[in-house]
Amino acid sequence: MRKVNYKEKGITLIALVVTIIILLILAGVTLTTALSQNGLFQRAKIAGENYKKAEADETEKLGEVEKEIDKIVNGETPPDPPSSGIGSSDIAEDLKEYQGKYVDIGLDTNDDKQVNDWEIFYVNEDRIFLIAADYVPVENLKKWGVIDGTLKSNGFIEYSSSSKYSVGWSTPTTFLNEGLADLNLVMHNGYYLKGLTSASDYNSIAVSHLLNKTAWEGVKNAAGKKTSIDFVIGGPTLEMWCAAWNKAVAEDETLKQIQADDVGASGYYLGCEATSLEQKFGLCVNGTEYSNPSSNEIEKYKAFFPHTAIWRGCYGYWLASPSAEKPENLLSVYFGGLIRSWLYNNHVLGVRPVVSLVSGVRIEERADVKNVYDLEE
């Protein structure tokens, strides 16, 4: 008879049940992982959709590239990439905020602080206008060819030996009427020299020279970034000055707006909101009378009044606009803040040239220097 061996290996019923339970648990976990919201099937579905979207985006971009290639092949220029700089439209929306901020055009006018030589003054259409931050020394005008032997001998412009900043105009033999800047860009209202077209109107001599961009070409040529400059003139017109000033004081209750008044061919009168236009010149303070702004106001608006007193023998700077007071008078900005008239050949005033940047030029603020901007290359 065969002897039974109770030690032979085999599976018990309990072990089988435990195994089945474990398998059921694992199956449940697997199904949960696969079928849940973030499960394998859902992830696979999302991955498929993302692939289709990426494929569509790639196809669209390839199509755009093909279009640009076709434009180049056909001689069309592709559009410039979007710019992060500040354009004339940005400045126009808040001119008061930008006025007086420095823009480096690579030209030292008065000292060794090159970035402090040109300030944002005005915008018109799609252009930015900069003004010299101070009166320009005669030596620099000579260096740039604005004043030289030819001009002086012809009687257009001369300077005072008593001051390094003072310039005036002699009586010329002919009226200089060529090379004028685009007055629609420079002047606020677009008047053409108030109709002054004769050499007998001596103030028109100075105005025409200030607006003669050919005469001031040397300033542009001396700038390190001249490709960004369209033209230079010898000073702002009264319309430009008033338009820029009215923007500057638009929210200032202590200074009222001033206005340039067209009186035909004889020049300009100046008035303010609260009074009738009279043969007087100046800022209208508190809306009732003409007087000088305070030193604090002049300092606040340095783009218009760089000094609060006579500076090195210079009383102010010329405006490119004739006066209606006399045919030989020219308007100017006095150091104390008044807009007043002087004889065109008076050697007590300097010039603050105005730079018109090329249409569409943008500027970018320096990362390390506040209120100083570079031209966007």
Overall description:
- The protein has 377 residues and is an alpha+beta fold.
- The chain has two domains: 65 residues; 288 residues, no CATH class.
- 31% of the residues lie in helices and 18% in strands.
- It contains eleven helices and 16 strands.
- The strands form six sheets. Strands 2-3-14-6 form a four-stranded antiparallel sheet.
- The longest helix has 34 residues.
- The N and C termini lie far apart (109 Å).
- About 2% of the residues have low confidence.
> How many domains make up the 3D coordinates?
2
Q: Helicity level, as a percent range?
A: 25-40%
Shape: elongated
Distance between the termini: 109 Å
Largest sheet: 4 strands, antiparallel
The chain-level mean pLDDT equals 77
Low-confidence blocks of residues: 274-281
Q: What order do the helices and strands follow?
A: HHHHEEEHHEEHHHEHEEEEHEEEEEE
Q: What percent of residues are in strands?
A: 15-25%
User: What structural category do the secondary elements indicate?
Assistant: alpha+beta
- In what order do the strands lie side by side in the largest sheet? 2-3-14-6
